[in-house]
Design a protein that fits this description.
Layout: E1 2-6, E2 11-15, E3 22-26, E4 40-42, E5 53-54, E6 61-67, E7 73-79, E8 82-89, E9 97-101, E10 106-110, E11 118-123
Length: about 120
């Protein structure tokens, strides 16, 4: 199978190796994580644990949270009402919590241990 990307109109052409068949798929423009126009935004001063936010960008966003404490901290990331990621993370180990949030979805970082000191970055 071969793959040809025609970026001018967002189409992808798939062809069999022997040339006996092919299919063309046209993708919608924009709204894909990592498309042009995305940039990292430091939301550290605009975000708090245990507060619900809504992704109103009209496209998916990627969130990366890095704790500022060197002690183990239990955190949960919710998208909607579903816990999508959790764990004990420490800044000294360089660990972080990362999630993708669909457009129009609510999200929050829950910290039962009371973590409130962190870096919070969003690719949006």
């Amino acid at each position: 199978m071969s793959l040809e990307l025609k970026s001018a109109n967002g189409s992808i052409l798939l062809s069999s190796e022997d040339g006996t068949g092919q299919a063309q798929v046209t993708l919608p423009r924009g709204g894909f994580l990592g498309d042009s126009g995305y940039q990292w935004v430091d939301e550290s001063t605009n975000r708090q644990a245990d507060v619900t936010y809504t992704n109103t960008t009209g496209k998916p966003i990627f969130i990366n949270v890095i704790p500022l404490s060197s002690s183990n901290q239990r955190v949960f990331m919710y998208v909607g009402n579903s816990p999508v990621d959790s764990g004990y993370i420490t800044a000294s180990a360089g660990e972080s919590l990362t999630v993708i949030v669909p457009k129009d979805a609510a999200y929050r970082l829950s910290t039962p241990s009371g973590v409130d000191s962190m870096y919070w970055f969003e690719l949006k």
